[in-house]
């Protein structure tokens, strides 16, 4: 198969996503940011409540996986909760009922999300734009109803008391700090993998499709195959985040598959900056922190999230990192 | 009396009626979405929230101002429509030059705000709304009991749907509208005020949602989350029907409501997902939707 030839015509950039200038391999700046991030994350659990830090990391991976599809693939899925929550249920079930070790439970959940993403993706890519968003939302709602009614999901109660177990059967994850470093390894690894995908020849073709689909087709790319692959990859990594989260909270519940979860990940990505590397991580951090501090205000959290959505769409479409990248004149 | 697949006719007819009621709401809401989509090219995610707002406006009119059901049937859609016009002027109109997905994101945010505000002030337990006296009671049809109000909902929704269809397909105003859908620049060049038309179209589309909300108020309890589940099903209805045709949106709405009702009789567990399954099948066979135009 022919490898991507860059379609870097700045005039043809899609209105939805600001184009990101490409550099081969990982730039020095990105290396430095990842290094600082890693060091900060190693210190973090000794400064803040580890569960909170783990929640942020899980959502950062979730948002980064979503951003692969929206920011780099140009596809707006409004149903990513299905993969996040679906994987969370399967991992919780595997750990609790089948007695899987945590790494196997997470892998099982992730595999389930991959299958689900492939199935839904192969139908959803038959429509484009707004219809694509509606189709993914509708299928996610179907997953929600299944989770509500199926036996193994425990209905309104969800799956509670999921054992954290022993990593590889030897290292106990019952301790929050031990679990923290497991979650750190999983989510950081996932985010690096996403970085690799975005900067691979495959990622270049994706951007070409996003910028100008008819041209990508005329260059001989099987556009639908690329879309299905990126959809499945995004669903898989969203599933990895969801499966990990079920171990952290020892719980898989309807919240994880609800449409508002799909909306939240869109909000995180929009706020942080669509099509940027670090935007979703920042967006996830901001939103999770906000929810944490505003939890006592009940439904006002929904109102505030709605306001952020509206302001973000009307005046702040580049997102936090997008604006920063423009100031620094460097892709972030 | 006849029996079908061992199902007593009362049960069958009862569920068919329920399905027809749901279908009425699907039809009115997907019609509103289709009208808005035709001209604005956005999917109005706030449609479910505005439907809920319609029901709440009717409840408020009754409880705060003592204005009853019949005036509310006109007033509530006007209030919701006015709200829609304000939203269109202040926010949506700024997004027309951008990718249409931004319209979806914006209206999603609006839906969260509207729903969150009502939840703050009214909780989620739901408020009762009395069936108007004229329509209380019901008719015994021999094979089933038909509550008057439910019959009225079906009739009213059909009248509104057909009226909208007539206005768009058979009147001069509708002709302008259809022309602007095809080519807004050209229609503007002929001296038609296209931005005004877009504004009124959005207002009318959401007024339909408000009207459906008033119809729903006496059947379902008036509840801040009454719109959120419904709107996702309506999205699936719209995907199945395709938004190219007004009549298509109406027919798909009623038919899917009835199919859902039948499913509840034959296989109750499947009734919540049957519309999504149909959507999957339609996507496999005719991706552009039953009434959609191939792209």
Give structural attributes.
heterodimer; A: 332 residues; mainly alpha; two-stranded antiparallel ribbon; 67% helix; disordered N terminus; B: 295 residues; ABC transporter involved in vitamin B12 uptake, BtuC; 11 helices; 70% helix; globular
Question: Helices and strands in order, then pairings?
Answer:
The complex is a heterodimer of chains A (332) and B (295).
Chain A: H1 28-43, H2 50-72, H3 81-96, H4 102-124, H5 129-149, E1 159-160, E2 166-167, E3 171-172, H6 176-198, H7 201-211, H8 213-218, H9 223-249, E4 251-252, H10 259-272, H11 279-294, H12 300-315, H13 319-328
Antiparallel strand pairs in A: 1-4, 2-3
Chain B: H1 9-40, H2 47-65, H3 69-90, H4 101-122, E1 138-140, E2 145-147, H5 148-170, H6 172-182, H7 184-189, H8 194-216, H9 226-241, H10 246-266, H11 274-285
User: How confident is the prediction overall: mean pLDDT of chain B?
Assistant: 89
**How many strand elements of chain A?**
4
- Could you estimate the helical fraction of the residues of chain A in percent? 55-70%
Largest sheet of chain A: 2 strands, antiparallel
Structural features, described:
- The complex is a heterodimer of chains A (332) and B (295).
- Chain A is mainly alpha-helical.
- Chain A has a domain at 48-258.
- Chain A has 13 helices and four strands.
- Chain A has helices at residues 28-43, 50-72, 81-96, 102-124, 129-149, 176-198, 201-211, 213-218, 223-249, 259-272, 279-294, 300-315, 319-328; strands spanning 159-160, 166-167, 171-172, 251-252.
- In chain A, the strands form two sheets. Chain A has a two-stranded antiparallel sheet with strand order 1-4. Chain A has a two-stranded antiparallel sheet with strand order 2-3.
- In chain A, a hairpin with a 3-residue loop joins strand 2 and strand 3 (171-172).
- Chain A is globular, with a radius of gyration of 19 Å.
- With 295 residues, chain B is mostly helical.
- Chain B has a single domain, classed as ABC transporter involved in vitamin B12 uptake, BtuC, CATH 1.10.3470.
- Helices cover 70% and strands 2% of the residues of chain B.
- The N and C termini of chain B lie far apart (49 Å).
- At the A-B interface, helix 5, helix 10 and helix 12 of A face helix 4, helix 9 and helix 11 of B.
């Amino acid at each position: 198969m022919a490898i991507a030839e860059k379609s870097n015509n700045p005039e043809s950039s899609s209105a939805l996503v600001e184009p990101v200038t490409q550099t081969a391999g990982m730039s020095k700046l990105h290396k430095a940011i990842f290094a600082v991030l890693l060091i900060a994350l190693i210190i973090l659990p000794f400064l803040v409540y580890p569960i909170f830090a783990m929640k942020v990391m899980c959502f950062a991976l979730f948002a980064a996986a979503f951003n692969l599809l929206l920011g780099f693939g140009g596809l707006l899925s409004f149903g990513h909760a299905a993969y996040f929550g679906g994987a969370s249920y399967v991992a919780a079930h595997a750990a609790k009922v089948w007695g899987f070790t945590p790494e196997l439970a997470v892998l099982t959940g992730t595999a389930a999300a991959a299958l689900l993403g492939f199935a839904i993706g192969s139908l959803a890519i038959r429509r484009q734009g707004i219809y694509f968003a509606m189709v993914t939302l509708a299928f996610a709602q179907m997953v929600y109803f299944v989770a509500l009614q199926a036996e193994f999901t425990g209905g309104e109660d969800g799956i509670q008391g999921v054992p954290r177990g022993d990593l590889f059967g030897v290292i106990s994850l019952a301790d929050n700090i031990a679990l923290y470093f497991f979650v750190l390894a999983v989510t950081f690894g996932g985010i690096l993998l996403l970085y690799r995908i975005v900067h691979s020849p495959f990622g270049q073709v994706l951007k070409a499709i996003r910028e100008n689909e008819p041209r990508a087709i005329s260059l001989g790319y099987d556009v639908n195959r690329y879309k299905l692959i990126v959809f499945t990859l995004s669903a898989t990594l969203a599933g990895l985040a969801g499966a990990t989260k079920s171990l952290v909270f020892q719980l898989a519940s309807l919240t994880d598959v609800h449409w508002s979860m799909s909306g939240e990940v869109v909000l995180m990505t929009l706020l942080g900056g669509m099509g940027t590397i670090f935007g979703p991580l920042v967006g996830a951090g901001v939103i999770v922190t906000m929810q944490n501090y505003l939890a006592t205000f009940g439904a006002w959290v929904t109102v505030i999230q709605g306001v952020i959505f509206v302001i973000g769409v009307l005046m702040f479409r580049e997102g936090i990192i997008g604006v920063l990248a423009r100031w620094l004149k460097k892709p972030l | 009396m006849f029996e079908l697949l061992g199902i007593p006719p009362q049960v069958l007819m009862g569920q068919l009626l329920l399905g027809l009621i749901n279908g009425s709401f699907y039809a009115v809401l997907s019609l509103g979405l289709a009208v808005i989509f035709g001209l604005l090219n956005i999917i109005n995610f706030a449609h479910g929230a505005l439907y809920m707002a319609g029901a709440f406006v009717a409840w408020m009119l009754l409880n705060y101002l003592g204005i009853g059901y019949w005036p509310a049937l006109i007033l509530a859609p006007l209030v919701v429509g006015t709200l829609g016009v304000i939203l269109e002027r202040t926010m949506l109109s700024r997004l027309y030059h951008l990718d249409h997905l931004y319209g979806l994101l914006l209206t999603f945010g609006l839906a969260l705000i509207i729903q969150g505000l009502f939840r703050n002030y009214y909780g989620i337990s739901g408020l009762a709304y009395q069936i108007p006296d004229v329509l209380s009671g019901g008719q015994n049809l021999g094979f089933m009991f038909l509550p008057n109000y439910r019959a009225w909902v079906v009739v009213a929704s059909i009248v509104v749907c057909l009226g909208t269809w007539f206005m768009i397909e058979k009147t001069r105003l509708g002709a302008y509208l259809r022309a602007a859908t095809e080519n807004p620049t050209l229609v503007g060049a002929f001296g038609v005020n296209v931005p005004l038309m877009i504004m009124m179209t959005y207002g009318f589309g959401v007024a339909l949602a408000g009207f459906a909300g008033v119809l729903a108020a006496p059947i379902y309890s008036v509840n801040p989350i009454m719109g959120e589940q419904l709107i996702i099903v309506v999205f699936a209805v719209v995907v199945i029907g395709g938004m190219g045709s007004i009549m298509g949106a109406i027919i798909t709405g009623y038919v899917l409501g009835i199919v859902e009702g039948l499913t509840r009789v034959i296989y109750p567990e499947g009734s919540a997902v049957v519309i999504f399954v149909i959507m999957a099948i339609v996507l496999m066979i005719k991706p552009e939707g039953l009434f959609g135009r191939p792209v």
